Amino acid sequence: MPEHALLKEKRIHGNPMYPVSSYVLDDLDFTTIMDCHWHEEMEFTLVTRGVIRFQIGTEYYEVSAGEAMFVHSGELHAGQKVGAEPCGFSSIVFGAEFLSSRGFDRLQEKYIEPLLQKKALPPSHLTGRKPGEREILDLIAAVIADNEAAAPAFELTTKARLYQIFALLQSAMREYAPPASGGDLDKIERLKTVLGYMHEHYPSPLKLKDLSAQIGMSEGHFCRFFKSMVHKSPVDYLNRYRIQQACRLLENSGHKIVEIAMEVGFDSLSYFISVFKQHQGCTPSQYRKRSEIGAASAAELARGL
Prior knowledge:
The protein is α+β, with helices and mostly antiparallel strands. The chain folds into two domains: 174 residues, Jelly Rolls (Sandwich), CATH 2.60.120.280; 93 residues, Arc Repressor Mutant, subunit A, CATH 1.10.10.60. Strands 1-8-3-6-9 form a five-stranded antiparallel sheet, covered by helices on one side. A four-stranded antiparallel sheet has the order 2-7-4-5, with no helix packed on it. Helix 2 runs antiparallel to helix 3. The termini are far apart. The N terminus and C terminus are likely disordered.
């Protein structure tokens, strides 16, 4: 398996009969709210609270509450909270086949094929300040709300509104999104490769020479390249990913904390605890206790219902 395939999101969005899913997340009070990943589906994400700094390919956008971003099929993307306040976002993720005509008609030829082949690219950041964008933002919000509520005929209104959104975006496609340069595409593929390698091998001791070798760079060049793309050093990114895996183990396993530290790639318990506190604001023991209290409260609520 190519290393970058490991970054491909494994979640299935919708089903073959309706390849659409909506997601609503609020009160997110941690720095990285969306890890680097990609998927075959397209995505509109509406920021509902705070400010989120999104990476899409090699570009970065600060998206405030009431604004949205568009992610095309196969684009590497990630998100980080900006500032001290919590943030929130809602997304609609849909397969390209949902937009396609049954046969190759004028609609498919003139509008859908250029979109699917990335010959016509919508703007990535929708602020509401350009002509038609406020209506687009309202349509995105309506699509997400209908899917969350399973409103009457929501499948039909979703398709109709997505067509309306892309119709409104037609005049903006040439203005905002020239084709990506070969250099940018190469950077993205290299980043996918090295991140995929880190995600697969994070439990093992990883050195800069191991990572830089994956994409044929010197260690110094690799560190500069990685920092420019991810806005973290390779060590910071790797430690953060290891802490994420540790959180899952603390929530879902009975392993001792020292065992978890070793399982996720730390050879020192004290260093593990220090890095964990830096990223989570508490010790691993405190995190596990909070998780257990939260699970018990949820179970109690379920029994009451």
